[in-house]
Amino acid sequence: MNSFTFDGISKPYLTVLKDSNRQPWAPIEWTYQDVPKRPGALPVKKNTRVRALPLPVFLKGKSIEDLQKVKEDLAEWLIHDEPKPLIFDDEPDRIYYAVVDGSFDPDEILKWGQGVIPFICPDPFKYGTEKTITVTNSATIEGTVSTNPIYTITFTAKASEFKILHQDTGKFVRVIYGFVAGDVLVIDFTKRKITSNDRLQMTALDLSSNWFNLQKGVNRFTITPAGVTTTKLTYNPRWL
Fold first, then answer.
1. CB 3.0-4.6 Å disulfide test: which of 44, 68, 163, 240 passes with 174?
2. DSSP state letters, 103-123
């Protein structure tokens, strides 16, 4: 691996060192419960912790003075108030969302410097590129972790409601509204927001609805009413 992009930017003065190793999965932490008169314990809850990505790098300046300017530019590039996309050259189809958490203390020899950038991913998962598919009664979801869908529903006829049932969990979301042909309904499970023709319509949400995640692999759906909509599903695949 030679380099990476952060916030869509790479720098010619920086090279990632060969001893950089990334964890094959985000850190997993279990909570256990002791059981009287039984050896060991029962696993109760699994938690995925933040992912640390310490990155050893080599900096090259044109002179000792230029190296100081390189470090200033490095700080301006890397320090942000919220996570930014981090993509490695040897893993171009995966996106990490990282912040710098800690200091960078390079060893300097003349116009060169070597140190470790302390990247942390508060969201521990890796992401793929956004996928959009047309849904009828099932969809195959990429990745190894569940993800949140966004449904875009275009009506081809009148309808008094729209309901999508996730057969594998029994959960559903139902929107009660007087739809006509040409209306576009968007159900955003990430933001838990409902819009119709770009207007917020949260009062149209059936209160018995239960937001669901898409599981890896095949997900089965029942859409009602049948035959009056075209439903597209947009999601970001995620990996541990």
1. 163
2. ----EEETTEEEEEEEEEESS
